[in-house]
TrEMBL record:
The keyword Transport applies. Residues 3-228 form the ABC transporter domain. One of its GO terms (molecular function) is ATP binding. This is ABC transporter ATP-binding protein. Gene3D superfamilies: P-loop containing nucleotide triphosphate hydrolases (3.40.50.300). The keyword Nucleotide-binding applies. It comes from Paenibacillus vini.
Amino acid sequence: MELILENIVKNYGDKKVLQNAGFTFEKGKIYGLLGRNGAGKTTLFNSLSGETKLDGGKAYIKEHDTLRELQEDDIGYVYSLPILPEFLTGYEFVKFFMDINRSKIQPDQQIDDYFEIMKITTEDRHRLIKNYSHGMKNKIQMLLFLITKPPVILLDEPLTSFDVIVALEMKILLRTMKKDHILIFSTHILQLASDLCDELVILNKGQLSSVPRELLGSPEFEQSVIDLLKDEPEGEGRADASNA
Ligand SMILES: Nc1ncnc2c1ncn2[C@@H]1O[C@H](COP(=O)(O)OP(=O)(O)OP(=O)(O)O)[C@@H](O)[C@H]1O
């Protein structure tokens, strides 16, 4: 399965944010999306999830040689600031979510199985969401996608809200999930990106480009990414980014 972006354009008034951005993302990989503040990472995620209308271009899902337009249902979106019903307990909310998505769930999957996978304790399951930490809310959002299994999962700065232990748990979870999904997460943490991602994608000047794989984990990695993100035109010593 592939997510294919073609000539994606998004403007806010006179501000051109995404300018003919194109890229092909593949199932089985974790992609890190890097870009400077205001580069348009959230705008790209909002556009793909249908929250914001695109001004141009198309997004497709390609599966078994069949191409179709991306639909809202294809996307699971883990927001950096999750919006959840605070008046319910985690358990009540997940139960409700399972009820309305009954057709997508394997019959042998029990609600507690999902909480176990997400390592949410029995006590926490029955607490009101309004008392959850930011990281706990992110965990609940990720749990929802274990239920509905959308082909594409977008995570906006997800791991920054987790403590080191939970971040490690989440990394393991993302690595197990990647075989069934296209996972794209935005981050400013270069170490996390090089550690977790199979591919790094740079969003700069409204366009997407991939960081050469051989740079991941190399001693020049950090400096090369900084060079790629700088506004200056291509100069000596600058790493080569290949447009997909
Ligand atoms: N609803 C909006 N109306 C007008 N301008 C917007 C809107 N949303 C975003 N922008 C502008 O679009 C640009 C891209 O914003 P966006 O939030 O997508 O960037 P980002 O890469 O996610 O940034 P950060 O890393 O700081 O979260 C910014 O200049 C921002 O001010």
